[in-house]
Specification:
Number of domains: 1
Distance between the termini: 40 Å
Shape: globular
Oligomer: single chain
Largest sheet: 8 strands, mixed
Number of strands: 15
Helix content: 25-40%
CATH architecture: 3-Layer(aba) Sandwich
């Protein structure tokens, strides 16, 4: 099942060839490559301390660039999170509640800003959740959505493409660009989908389909609440309060098998990112390219009650994602411990290429991280995440200022994290500085120590300011997407949230 190191040597042999600086300003790159890894937990990369699986390419990128230790995704599903990455805004501003909705054209997308500045913008996506019908193609001259792996009963839950196909498509585009003698600067967006369920890594005879995942979910539900709810039921109607957040359980042999297959998918992803990096180097483009790599969200295994899923909760397994930035002027080996968010990527990229990144003090939007790439300290700021499930049935009976108002939300400030799930009446507080996985809810204990009480007040204040900043742009559910996304629990009509 495990993929072995020699397959990555063409890129890892380049370690140490990056441009270095001693800190200070980051020089402007000629090109930008944004890589997003779907459903990829930060704790499955060696650079984040994981030792079970081999991720030498991503580890090399981190060694050659800057690694952000505490990056949270803005939302726990693909389209909403990617819209935040591309707009620099939280969902309560860009308006995309979850998969299957549309990006309103009034949103200012990263590709639009870069295109107007002379960048040739090309995207290569690997999931039906990001097809051009959603509006994610705004600003791209080329939007490659060739999904070569169709949805199939008992197999893929949606049309998608393999990581190999994504890497091949990007490298072919680079060849065509160079053959044409183009002088434009490039913005490339490459989305890899492979770690998403079902888990079937290339090179392995084992596959864990949705029936296997459902069996694992049901087994844990029966163990903890004495009944089988099933995954689709909680996606549609929500978690029982007993399964809200961390749970006390142990992995079954099937859970362990699923986790091993997931890890092997991440290893394969690492290999394909290595092919892409090696291709950039072979074409003489790597050292003039700002490479930004992150994930849209994570994946819960058995440590939280939304077993083998994402979208229902905002715990660390759901929203703690990798963020690595490598390129001209980036201080090699920098590690940034200040919490940041996916909404910070667009302003950082714009700032790096010399364009306006915005004021940086709006709680509904991100800020530039450029200074941290050169080794400067990054000021502490609250960052936020929100769940995109359960479905709309919990939101009837009156208008809401924002469709996510009753769903789980999280605010992170320094080492402290507050989770609020209004539909369950749940509030949880974690000190991630001493409990990095978020397993000990301090509000469930008899009393709070003074530092925790002070942190809770700060978190509540930051959360109120964020909620007050809500001004979502219009977004409607696209009925054409309903059937394609039904396997993920996103099916519905235009009354969906």
């Amino acid at each position: 099942m495990t993929l072995r190191l020699p397959r990555w040597l063409p890129y890892t042999a380049l370690l140490g060839l990056s441009l270095s600086c001693g800190g200070g300003e980051v020089s402007a790159p000629r090109h930008v490559l944004l890589i997003t890894l779907d459903t990829t937990r930060a704790d499955h990369l060696g650079a984040y301390g994981q030792a079970r699986f081999e991720t030498p390419v991503l580890d090399a990128l981190a060694a050659e660039g800057a690694l952000f230790e505490q990056c949270s995704s803005a939302a726990a599903t693909t389209l909403s999170s990617h819209t935040s990455l591309m707009t620099g805004a939280y969902p309560l501003r860009h308006g995309v509640a979850r998969n299957g909705f549309t990006v309103d054209p009034s949103n200012r997308m990263l590709a639009e800003a870069l295109g107007e500045a002379g960048f040739e913008c090309s995207a290569f996506v690997a999931s039906s959740a990001l097809v051009s019908a959603t509006g994610m193609d705004q600003g791209f001259g080329l939007y490659d959505e060739h999904l070569d792996l169709p949805a199939s009963p008992g197999g893929n839950d949606q049309a998608q493409r393999s990581a190999r196909s994504v890497s091949d498509a990007v490298l072919s585009r680079l060849d065509a660009w160079q053959a044409a003698g183009a002088s434009d600067r490039l913005f490339l967006f490459a989305h890899y989908f492979d770690p998403h369920a079902p888990y079937g890594p290339p090179g392995s005879d084992e596959v864990a389909g949705f029936d296997d995942i459902e069996d694992a979910v049901v087994a844990q539900q029966r163990r903890l609440v004495g009944r089988a709810l099933g995954q689709q039921a909680v996606i549609g109607t929500g978690l029982p309060v007993e399964l809200a957040g961390p749970v006390v359980t142990t992995p079954s042999p099937e859970d362990e098998r699923l986790a091993a297959l997931y890890g092997a998918e991440v290893e394969y992803l690492d290999f394909e990112v290595g092919r892409l990096m090696a291709g950039l180097a072979a074409r003489g483009m790597l050292e003039e390219t700002l490479v930004v790599l992150t994930a849209d969200h994570g994946e819960t295994f058995w440590e939280q009650g939304n077993f083998w899923n994402h979208g229902l909760w905002v715990g660390e397994a759901d929203v703690h994602v990798p963020l690595i930035i490598r390129g001209p002027g980036v201080l090699p080996g920098a590690r940034v411990s200040t919490p940041v968010s996916g909404v910070d990527l667009a302003p950082t990229i714009l700032d790096a290429v010399g364009l306006s990144a915005g004021p940086g003090d709006d709680p509904g939007r991100g800020r530039s991280l450029l200074g941290a790439l050169g080794g400067a300290d990054l000021a502490k700021r609250a960052v936020f995440s929100e769940a995109t499930q359960p479905g709309p049935r919990l939101e009837g009976g009156g208008e809401l200022a924002w469709p996510g108002d009753v769903k789980p939300q999280a605010v992170r400030l320094g080492g402290w994290k507050l989770i609020k799930a209004p539909y369950l009446g749940v509030r949880q507080l974690y000190n991630l500085a001493v409990d990095p996985a978020g397993r000990r809810d301090l509000l469930s204990e008899p009393s709070l120590e003074p530092p925790a009480r002070a942190a809770l007040q700060d978190l509540e204040r930051a959360h109120r300011a964020w909620r007050d900043a809500a001004a979502p742009r219009p977004s409607t559910f696209d009925p054409a997407q309903a059937e394609a996304l039904r396997g993920l629990g996103y099916g519905g009509d235009d009354s969906d949230d």
